[in-house]
Every structure is written in C-alpha cells, then in structure tokens.
C-alpha cells in the first residue's frame, strides 16, 4: 500500500489521465466505483491532462466527478460545475509553427502530430518518435528555443513558456478558492512534475522516469492504473 504523509489533509485529488487512470486497454471499471465513493466521502476529484477538452469531457462525465478539467498540459481550464466558462490560457500558434519547422529538420517527423491536434488551442502534440531528445535539441538551437519539449510516454508536447499543469491548476484553484496545500495529485510522467511541485502531495504511479519519482512525495507499489487504484483505496481508508 502506498505510504502517504501522515499529516496530510486534502480536499481534492487531481488525476493525470494517460498512464495513470487510462491506457490503450481502457480504464479499470473499479476506478469509477472508487472515485465515486471518494467523492461521496467529501473529496473532490479533478483531471489535469495533456489531452484536449473534447477528449477529457466524456471521461469527466463518465466518472461523475465534481471537480474541474485542466487540459492541454495547463493551457485549457473548464470548470462548468461551478459555472465558469472555458478558458484558454495560452496561444498555441508558435508551437504549431515550430512543429512545421521541425518537419523540415528531422527525417520522418510528421509536423501534423496526433489527430487530436485539430482541437488543440494552446500547444502542439507530436507523435512519440522514440528519440524525443532529437526534437529537444533541434528546438534548443532554433528561433523557438523558448518552447518546451515534454515527453509523456504517449506523445511529445510542444508548449510555450509559463504553460504547464501548475499554471493551469493555479488558475483553476483560484477560481474555486482552493488552497494547493490541501490538494493531492497523481501522475506518471515528466509533464506531471510541475503539478507535483505545486500541490501538497504528489503521488507517482510509474517507475520509468527517475526525475518524476524524485519530484513525488509518495510512490505506489503497483504501476499505472493499478497504482491509481492503490491510491484511491488508501485515501478511502484514511477518510
């Protein structure tokens, strides 16, 4: 069982999606059961993901959670449950331009990226080409050197300065009047590190990235979706 800080008091759990509660085989049905039980016990559940809002909204609805959605790695915030409009917090045009340039520099790289880019407003997402460092190094020596290159294990995200899960969560927390020190977050990849650094407790469900483990306050014994179930059970038992 995951060892959580004994003195932690949390009002909200923020879940990453891909690799955390969802993968190519879908979601474990028990996840929805446990999330609903956690909400009934008084802890709000929210989502913070690199996915677009059209990808995340059905997940939010099927889990019947009362929290908000932070999409595009912090670029989009939607908190309809509290009556707030959809907010785009960044301009993704430079990242699209950078992707087009990368397509002329790296053989085999498709600048159009993943299909969900048709809905993407604040960043651009490339199909994971394996050697993401090649993308990072090319960007570093270009006119787009301020753009961050972030691998997630599923894709490679191009994001503008100041645009990450922490910036999106900060906006969403302020809208609801939530203290980040009363929030626990769960993720699995480098794009979750800003989120871990912002909240009171970060929980990692993946051993593949040493820097993510180092940023986390706790690590689950199980990995991926099973690790998230482990965390949910621990929180329910604790409450």
Name its key features.
Rossmann fold, Hypothetical Protein Ta0175, Chain: A, domain 2, 8-stranded mixed beta sheet, 239 residues, alpha/beta
Counted by DSSP, the helix tally is 8
Spatially, the strands of the biggest sheet line up as 5-4-3-2-1-9-10-11
Biggest sheet, open or closed, and with what strands and sense? 8 strands, mixed
Which CATH class of the largest domain is shown?
Alpha Beta
What structural class results from the helix and strand content? alpha/beta
Per CATH, which architecture of the largest domain?
Answer: 3-Layer(aba) Sandwich
Helix content: 25-40%
Low-confidence stretches: none
Gyration radius, in Å: 17 Å
Number of beta strands: 11
CATH third-level topology of the largest domain: Rossmann fold
Spatial gap, N to C terminus: 15 Å
Q: What are the secondary-structure elements, in order, as H or E?
A: EHEHEEEHEHEEHEHEHEH
Total count of domains: 2
Q: Based on CA inertia axes, which overall geometry fits?
A: globular
The CATH superfamily of the largest domain is identified as: HAD superfamily/HAD-like
């Amino acid at each position: 069982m995951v060892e959580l800080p004994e003195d932690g008091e949390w009002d909200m759990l923020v879940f990453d999606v891909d690799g955390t509660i969802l993968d190519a085989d879908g979601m474990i049905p028990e996840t929805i059961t446990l999330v609903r039980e956690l909400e009934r016990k008084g802890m709000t559940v929210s989502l913070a993901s690199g996915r677009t809002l059209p990808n995340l909204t059905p997940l939010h609805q099927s889990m019947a959670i009362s929290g908000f959605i932070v999409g595009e790695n912090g670029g989009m915030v939607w908190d309809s449950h509290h009556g707030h409009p959809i907010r785009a917090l960044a301009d993704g045009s430079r990242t699209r331009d950078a992707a087009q340039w990368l397509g002329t520099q790296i053989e085999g790289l498709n600048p159009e990226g993943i299909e969900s880019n048709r809905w993407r407003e604040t960043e651009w997402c490339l199909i994971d080409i394996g050697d993401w460092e090649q993308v990072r190094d090319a960007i570093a020596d270009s006119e787009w050197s301020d753009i961050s290159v972030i691998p997630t294990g599923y894709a490679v995200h191009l994001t503008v300065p100041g645009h990450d899960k922490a910036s999106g969560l900060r906006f969403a927390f302020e809208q609801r009047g939530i203290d980040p020190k009363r929030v626990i977050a769960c993720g699995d990849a480098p794009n979750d590190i800003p989120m871990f650094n912002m909240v009171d407790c970060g929980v990692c469900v993946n051993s593949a990235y040493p820097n993510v483990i180092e940023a986390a306050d706790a690590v689950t014994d199980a990995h991926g979706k099973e690790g998230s179930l482990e965390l949910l059970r621990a929180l329910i038992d604790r409450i």
